[in-house]
Fold these 4 entries.
Entry 1:
Amino acid sequence: MRYLVLSDIHGGSEELKQALHFFNKFNCDFLILLGDLLNHGPRNKLPASYDPMIVGDILNQYKDKVISIRGNCDSEVDGMVFDFPCNAAYGYIVLLTDKGLKKVFLTHGHLHKIETKEQISKLGLNPGDIVLSGHTHVSGIFHKDSGVININPGSISIPKGGTQKGFALISENAIELYDLNGNLLNSYNFKE
């Protein structure tokens, strides 16, 4: 199974089109959305291609392949635009890797703390598990003191912290971070 992971679209329709090009290029089976799909929020600049209705129309074309998590800028009424469920606060996927099963916790990143072993235990996580999150708009692979690996694909429309517009790809062997031009930026190999 292959998953394209997007976060913090914030209504950027052209950036979404550019990112979804890689869904087919990488032969993805599912599209994981980590929240903040339509609205830009009061602390973010308006994306140049801001058009939430077009974003809704585009994402609805993938409705049978979407796994979606709600972000802090997503409201209940946003869900009325989509033909797929999008109001879950978190979720899990389990990957079959060369090293066995790997649990991946999906969250936007604003509700759940993952800094200590006690915090991850409350989420049903153990050291070595993966947390996919967005929210900060800063892409990267972060090894937390709790023992989890936090992977953030960044934002496709409003990147922060000097990072580029980007997304993640989950393949059979790794989670890779790419910019919107398809350049590999970083990767986490499941054999690590």
Entry 2:
Amino acid sequence: MALSDIAAGLEVTTEQHHRGVATVDTTETALADRLEPVADDLPCSAAAAATVIETYATGASVGDCGVEAGVAPVTAAKVLHLAGEATTPLSPQGRQFVRDWLAATLSRADALALSGASDAEFALAAYCETHDPLAAVCEAAEGALSPTGSASVAKRDALAETMSESGEFF
């Protein structure tokens, strides 16, 4: 059997499935209730923001999070940005063009053209540049977005027998 026989029928795809990180929110208060004190600072209701964060933690895309919460995908991206997640759609150089536009050293048309962004991407990048993540939202979402927690420990325990110790190789 030749290598070409083994490789026959194999396909290369460019699509990957992001599975996300398993997390567990170990707090006793519901996320929507923890977000309620800062609801005025959120771009949507606390309940919708909680749905966005919880859906995102399962590995869903930002757009899917928005659909699940009943808000526009850009609103979902804003919520995640306020929760400390990196959701800016532009590269560091593109973000610099947005900063130059905000500082009035570059026209909007030039900044938009140089960044290569769509109008919606440019608007989201401008929001991310002008709004820092909110400590209260980050703290409230910490249990939902944190990769540490009882789920990670339980997963590690369940897979313990499949992992070898470093001393086993000597």
Entry 3:
Amino acid sequence: MSPWLVVGLGNPGPQYAGNRHNVGQMVLDVLARRMNGSFTAHKARAQVLDGRLGILPGGAPGPRVILAKPGSYMNVSGGPVGALAKFYGIEADELLVIHDELDLPADTLRLKLGGGEGGHNGLKSISSAIGTKDYLRLRVGIGRPPGRMDPADYVLRDFPPSERADLAVTLEEAADAVEEVLTLGLEKAQQRLHTV
């Protein structure tokens, strides 16, 4: 059975690490901590962590999962994601992409399968690379920019100190949602997440 591929979108390099656009990679850092693992370089131009995540009903260890941070810029994430999917033999229904979402209020999480990309160039690049939009997404709300700020500037700004306590809670909840998708299935994970 092939593993899950869980991708956290963002831009590479320390100057982007705290940006709103990098919230997907922040969720992966929480998951890596839960797996007691660290990321290593992969030839597909990505940082990966291969291990097991969560506990299945009945107490067995959760499924094998590849956590991946593409080493490319967000807008061309498809290259590394497509290469990893090919390398590990992963189909679209075993791919979960975690990304920032301007159209959701801050600290809101939503799971969905397929659908449009909502102007998100990272998702467009992945859909193009794997040939389908039918993969899972965990959307992490970052809210709209204040006033007339350009959304492109907003997503490349760090979370301010005033938001970091809430952000830490959201990242843990997002990691919980990923574990639930992998161990309980999308429907049960959605029911719990979307009715909170």
Entry 4:
Amino acid sequence: MPPVERVVVLALDGVYPFELGIPSRIFGAADGRYEVLTCTVDGRPVRSNADFSVTVEHGPEVLRTADTVVIPAVNPDSVTVELPEEVARALALIRPGARIVSICTGAFVLAAAGLLDGRPATTHWLLADLFRRMFPQVALDPDVLFVDDGTILTSAGAASGVDVCLHILRKDHGSELANKVARRCVVPPWRDGGQAQYIEQPVPESAATGTAATRAWALDRLGDPLALSDLAGHARMSPRTFARRFNDEVGLSPGRWLIQQRVSRARHLLESSDLSVDQIAGEVGFATGTSLRQHLHAAIGVAPQAYRRTFQAAR
């Protein structure tokens, strides 16, 4: 059994209760692999953005012991370009090398601390313009559900905190545990696409003319050489119309979505089977083992055999 990792959640004034509870719910369901503690900048209760306050068991000193620190969403009306002094002091306690994660407007806190300077990041799409005005030095991408930039991860609004926590679980302990936790929490283990699918559209597309059925059809045929014309033909649309509707619904092009699904399936097979890299490439629809290696490295930064050694050893 790998060592238990300590996750410390820093509840700031105006914290959103839903986002505050996500780390405990997700990491707490991971078969004892994580210990989750919640603290405030002074150990005292903080006001939430709802009609109650939050009382915690810990002060900022536990941040020194954290392997991962999570900053949940705060009221956007309270965010500033410069951090309040007590918040800056608390963040300064985080040890070098610790992983830092923000949920929704928590990215404003990281940006104000200078932790996102020159880095890619995301936050809630509705606040993208405000974020860019306040922090032009950050490479904001408001179209994605989360950004993993190594030791710093940022996620978009509300439920994307679930996505980023499951992503961390998957990185740390593999897809099998992440999928088990997702089932326990009754959430999808992976959501396709980005925030574009949740942005209000002037004219909603009819569900009957959407691409969901074709996505399900494609997932059953990932090993086949699926072209845009094949997907559009199944959906009974022209390729141009299909590509536009697909991007509106999922936030990705059909080709990029297929690559994501194939990489995800390949990761599962690397963890759970003894198939060779070339065999797995054929199973998931990559033309060669070299193609699988390139796409896996682009997605998670490691080679297939290194990934397999890590997660088969953790089982």
